[in-house]
Amino acid sequence: MEPNSSRARRAAALRSTLSLAAFIALWWLGAVLAGSPQLLPSPADVLIVTWRELASGAMLSNIGITLLRVSIAFSLSMIVGSTIGYLAGRSVRGNAYINPWLIISLNMPVLLVIILVYIWIGLNETAAVLAVIIAKTPTVIVTIREGTRALDRGLEDVAAVFHLPLLRRMRRIVLPQLSPYMAAAGRSGLSITWKIVLIVELLGRPNGVGFEMNLFFQSFNVAGVLAYGLAFAAIMLIVETTLLQPWEQRANAWRRP
């Protein structure tokens, strides 16, 4: 008899497959009703453009460049945001200093941040990555801060009684409790990060998925825009399914009875 967890995974995979099939069917139906490849190309039309871009090597090159930017910006925003969020959650005084900055940054339009960073630093890779980090980090800070506030104080009292070293206390007590919040911040953060990266590339980089989508937009080539957008979204879906979701499940495993 199959374990319940194995059956649940297979059922979830089947539901995901059916959901994707429904998406493609609705897309095809919308293309038929639109009656114009210029307005809404069919899945087959987009697949042809995708294959052409893959065969030329342009899509793989641009996706690789965008993935590198996403990886760097995502990693740094998680490190910086987690550190500041933990300090804000632990210290009332520290949170009082951080909170006004946090509110301003959370309500700052992403487009404004990108434009200002490009003006101040220039149209270069440092500015592109920095703009994404500035736009993404505040949401990580908020999530980790709330997780830190929810830490079990009783466990910390036990650690203090037994004089646990700081590193062991962080590894054995703090990080296991913060892991679900870090996983949640990571899952939501990755989807936000790559969208911001596309805007950054569209506005000021000579390569990447955002840059290519802008070129297709200028020639009113909807199939090209969809080809690059959906190809990168598919990669992010794979990352989400194979890496982030299992990480979140492991992070929350200790909470199950």
Structure keywords:
about 260 residues, single chain, MetI-like fold, 10 helices, globular, mainly alpha
Description:
- With 257 residues, this protein is mostly helical.
- The chain contains ten helices and no strands.
- The protein has one domain (42-255): MetI-like fold, CATH 1.10.3720.
- 85% of the residues lie in helices and 0% in strands.
- Helix 9 (209-218) packs antiparallel against helix 10 (222-252).
- It is globular, with a radius of gyration of 22 Å.
Radius of gyration: 22 Å
Low-confidence stretches: none
Q: Roughly how much helix do the residues carry, as a percent range?
A: over 70%
Q: What fraction of residues sit in β-strands?
A: under 5%
Tally of DSSP β-strands: 0
Overall number of structural domains:
1
**What is the annotated CATH architecture?**
Orthogonal Bundle
Query: Looking at CATH, which topology would you report?
Result: MetI-like fold
Broad CATH class: Mainly Alpha
Could you state the order of secondary-structure elements as H and E? HHHHHHHHHH
The secondary structure category is mainly alpha
